[in-house]
Amino acid sequence: MSKNEPDAVRRLRIIDSHTVGEPTRVVISGGPEVLEKGAVAARDFLRDEADWMRCCLINEPRGFDAVVGAFLCDPVDEDCVSAVVFFNNGGYLPSCIHATIGVIRTLEHMGRIGIGRHRLETSAGVVTAQLSADGSVTVENMPSYRTGKNVVLDVPGYGEVSGDIAWGGNWFFLIAGQGPPVEQSGIADLIAFSMAVRRVLDSSGVRSEDGALIDHVEVFGEPREGLDADSQNFVLCPGGAYDRSPCGTGTSAKLACLAADGDLAEGKIFRQAGIVGTVFEGRYRRIDAERITPIVTGKAWITAESEIIIEPDDPFRFGIATENIFKKN
Ligand code: PYC
User: Fold this and answer.
1) Quick one: fold of 144-297?
2) 124 in contact with ligand 1, CB cutoff 6 A
3) Is the CB of 98 under 6 A from ligand 1?
4) What is the per-residue pLDDT across 245-283, written as a single tens digit (0 to 9) for each?
5) Is the Cβ atom of 248 under 6 angstroms away from ligand 1?
6) Could you tell me the pTM of the whole model?
7) I need a labelling partner for 10 at 20 to 30 A (CA). Which of 99, 194, 246, 313 fits?
8) DSSP letter for each residue of 156-184
């Protein structure tokens, strides 16, 4: 159990949305009071002092494993419309683009922003989002880059699997043309494969340049017939859920690899489909020899405005506790 749990009836107002299939749950009131400004301070406070909110909103019976939560708070950077802390069933995420798109649509729904360009402060840096009249949102992500090419892992049950390591706002191990076919009917096999890869990443000490876990596994295949896309992916998130969208930070990591290999020209559109067949449109601006700014466009829809109620005698007021199946940073 986490510290500072509420011991009286507590009500949290939330707005739910989905971004081409992947859910986002934004807390708009009733969450813990964070005294210090900024996404980093709020993330540390929630993680260390008030993790009950994440457990209550994400765990069953109020949530489910694919939900990404977003807590709005005051930014340090006053040019930002808000600071935001992202969290899921595995813990706190540095960044999340599908949820950024969901947050922008939610802020519009609340009347806090209109069509135009908006800056959002995340714990990993500031991202810019353009809300267009057709409801689409284009996110200019933080600098993204590849740190490892053709890293070979020995994966029990699958043999040698090679992949690239790249940062797109989260750390990814990107695998192309290996493992089970990337198709919706094969999700169970893709989960088993990418979990096996993730276990090897954790146990073999393969890490980012700053020692972080490589906690997202992204598997690529050809797009299914009839899909207007350049590629189709499957993304395993930390905590073991799979992304129902094409994963914006994963698309950013892919763009970094394509740019590094000279396989996609600056400004050219790359259409990344996810496992359920929805698409994010990506392109990039080059920063320098190693880094790019990924630009990712997608769309979110509001699905609910509701109030979460926590009754003090509810045995599952903070959700049904699940063991994190993977290591945490
Ligand atoms: O869209 O960046 C993303 C994302 C990360 C985890 C789930 N979605």
Assistant:
1) Diaminopimelate Epimerase; Chain A, domain 1 (3.10.310)
2) no
3) yes
4) 999 999 999 999 999 999 999 999 999 999 999 999 999
5) yes
6) 0.96
7) 99
8) TTTEEEEEEEEESSSEEEEEES-SS---G
Q: Which atom of ligand 1 is nearest to the CA of 246?
A: 1
> How far is the C-alpha of 227 from the C-alpha of 308, rounded, in Å?
38
Tokens 């926590």, residue located? 310
Topology match between the domains 10-140+302-327 and 144-297: yes
User: What does DSSP assign to residue 186?
Assistant: G
The torsion defined by the Cα of 214, 255, 236 and 296, in degrees rounded to 10, comes to 120
CB 48 within 8 A of CB 124: no
Instruction: Parse the chain into domains and list their residue ranges.
Output: 10-140+302-327, 144-297
- Residues acting as catalytic residues: 96, 247
Helices (H), 7-138: 39-49, 52-58, 97-109
Tokens matching residue 302? 């509001």
Q: How would CATH label the architecture of 10-140+302-327?
A: Roll (3.10)
Q: pLDDT tens digit string along 289-304?
A: 999 999 999 999 999 9
Measured CA to CA, the distance from residue 88 to residue 237 in angstroms comes to: 9
Tell the residue number behind the tokens 């519009």, with chain if given.
Answer: 108
Three-state SS at 269: coil
